[in-house]
Amino acid sequence: MQIVKAEVTPVELSLRKPVQMAGTPMIERVTAVFVRLETRQGQSAWGCTVAHPGLTGEKPEAVVRACRECASLAPDLHPTNIEYSLTELAYHVKGSESALCAFDLAFHDLLGLAADMPVYRILGGYRDRIQTSATIPIVPVEESVEIARSRASLGYRMLKIKGGLDPEEDVHRVQAIHQALPSHILRLDADGGYSIQEALDIARALKGQLEMLEQPTSPMDLAGLSQVTKSSPVPILADQSVTGPASALDLAASRAANGMSIKLATCGGLRCARQIDAIARAARLATMISCFIEPALLIAAGLSLALSSPNVRYGDLDGYIDLTNDPSKPGFRFEDGWLIASDVPGLGYSVELG
Predict the structure, then answer these.
(1) Full domain range(s) for residue 33
(2) What is the number of alpha carbons within 13 Å of residue 185 lying toward its C-beta?
(3) Are strands 133-136 and 212-214 parallel, antiparallel or unpaired?
(4) Would the pLDDT of 354 be above 80?
């Protein structure tokens, strides 16, 4: 098997409605970059990534440029020697984990096609389904409840409520959603927007109503996060504090959280994500496989990771549901709050680029 062509296609994806999150301007669209690898035998494998300064911290033009550099190198790399190939690409695109993610996914997809196996089975195959949450953006209380009811009507049984701008309002929003949907599992994600005291006050006010509080304080302040974790009655997950294996090791060593959230586009794809999960597992910390606003193909890759490891306790893989022009379609199924893998070779998806 030999790669003979690598194509890079950026696509601007639009949201049905703008989304408000702490720490970033209103989000109306994101840039996705799709990569297609073609082999001499006629096989096509796909990967993708996303770029948005407020989400991933990378500008789209820089990610596209890095992807095109990787594309020029891909034909000289053996598609099934993943460790060597991705190490070579990582060396050439230092500073762009998003670009590395796109090629990491494409190489894993090609490996699955070559082996005639789903990627989640190649990675470990621990399970074939996992529950996922649906996200409620930062909106007023009544609208939060309305969106929560809408997500519940689609079958979601877990809801992740975005917060971090107004702690008192966030408490009211969580309480109102809990009252409206008392059997639903609720998570609150502050995106680093609270002070230490605000985080502890919220955790105490919402004890018994929250499954977890995600990234309550600044991602750069592990000491502050650790202080919250030690005193909080609600489990604390680190998100933006985890950018790769080195940061995961620091977090595990300091016991700064009860678990870690892993996003493929942040850490560079499945290869590095598995290293983070291994660190968390050794430290007896739970992992959550999460996402940005991103195409179904990237969600399928995150699902492959989530299904591969017994240490993955939480799923947060809904980033594709509000995109209006996603050229990728999932091969997995969504049933009553669960994402269920298909047993097709590779990552499981279809892509239609005009």
Answers:
(1) 3-116
(2) 15
(3) unpaired
(4) no
